[in-house]
Amino acid sequence: MVFTSFIHPIMKYHPVDRNLYIKNRAKFTAQMKPNGVAVFNSNDIYPVSADSTLPFAQHRDILYLSGVDQEESILLLFPDAQYPHLREILFLRETNEHIAVWEGEKLTKERAYEVSGIKTVYWLTDFQKILKEVMAYAETMYINTNEHYRATLETETREARFVKWWKENYPAHKVEKSNPILQRLRSVKESEEIDLLQKACDITEKGFRRVLSFVKPNVMEYEIEAEFAHEFLRNRSKGFAYTPIIASGNNANVLHYIENNQQCRAGDLILLDVGAEYANYSSDMTRMIPVSGRFTERQKEVYHAVLRVKNEATKMLVPGTLWKEYHVEVGKIMTSELLGLGLLDKADVQNENPEWPAYKKYFMHGTSHHLGLDTHDYGLLHEPMQANMVFTVEPGIYIPKEGFGIRLEDDVVIQKTGEPYNLMRNIPIEVEEIESIMNA
């Protein structure tokens, strides 16, 4: 990845080559209808209580198209504008010495160009005036709505408020959606994005190796979480890409266990579902480690079964694969392994409900999801997989009666030919390597 020479004024991470965002905008505008205008907003800063707020997290769409990682920013794209200065516009909160003293440095117009490659930059106070001029020429407005298949929308976002205002104030314009375009574009990564994902995975590796040397009987789950956080932050990550799961013993059988408040007992396994972010790109790793530094024979037996499923599932992530059919095939592989482990018998399989196959008793979630700027990233699941899509691979077997569950997860890039490229190839996963490091 090529870095520009300037110092990023706000973020921990190294500056990203603005050519990435120039390419992303070109891909997006190429899909727009004639005389269309698209607008993208930063996320809100969400209040907690009194004057407290949650840490700011940028809306991934404006970030993808501009590289601007700052609150109260707006991107306007009008590729068919007769005047060149109206084709790409950034609107930023005006900065000054007072703001710099109290809140830290914000993007100047010059820095915004260096970050994004967008030459026309106005302060936010000019937005409605400029938009009015643009809308006089435009025929279609592209609204940005959240249509991710996992989305739960209980809070009105800054983007949603703007869409409502925009449609009310310009009711004569046609309306199109940005999201279907972005679902396709964001799911196929540029080489610069894969480099950023690799960096996130490399930071996760450092955290995992640190934890392997740290874990011992009676350690608390939250102490392990703290070790990851320490290593992530010292490597220019903002921290966890998602809420970490540090689940010892039977806690591993709760799929989204996030309390991380129990003591790790000798003889138990710990499920670590943890990933660092880097430059807002997510990694997503799951590993299993033994509290005492050694797996029992039964734990190894189940572990190797999960690892075989992961390895076979990975081979199927190739161009042309359909997500739904892929999961059916993974289910067949898992069924075979569960029969071998004695968790299922032939009668269970013969009498299974096709809507909820027998293997679902022990493996009830999906095997793969898109990964990128979001941990569950954009991607249209009914369309065939393509080269440079990035997926997780994360089968698991959960056995509450035996007091443990096992899940293993890597992040892989689909290649034009051959098997996917594993971004987590250097993170220990074999039983022998994990035991060797823990007992060094």
Description:
The protein has helices spanning 19-30, 60-66, 97-103, 109-116, 127-137, 158-169, 179-187, 191-214, 221-233, 297-315, 323-340, 346-350, 431-438; strands at residues 36-41, 47-49, 52-53, 74-77, 88-92, 120-123, 140-143, 174-177, 245-248, 269-274, 277-278, 281-282, 285-290, 390-393, 396-399, 404-407, 410-413, 421-422. By secondary structure, the chain is of the alpha+beta class. A hairpin with a 2-residue loop joins strand 11 and strand 12 (281-282). Helix 1 (19-30) crosses helix 2, helix 8 packs across helix 9 (221-233) and helix 10 (297-315) runs antiparallel to helix 11 (323-340).
SSE layout:
Layout: H1 19-30, E1 36-41, E2 47-49, E3 52-53, H2 60-66, E4 74-77, E5 88-92, H3 97-103, H4 109-116, E6 120-123, H5 127-137, E7 140-143, H6 158-169, E8 174-177, H7 179-187, H8 191-214, H9 221-233, E9 245-248, E10 269-274, E11 277-278, E12 281-282, E13 285-290, H10 297-315, H11 323-340, H12 346-350, E14 390-393, E15 396-399, E16 404-407, E17 410-413, E18 421-422, H13 431-438
Parallel strand pairs: 1-7, 5-6, 7-8
Antiparallel strand pairs: 1-4, 2-3, 4-5, 9-10, 10-13, 11-12, 14-17, 15-16, 17-18
Helix pairs in contact: 1-2, 8-9, 10-11
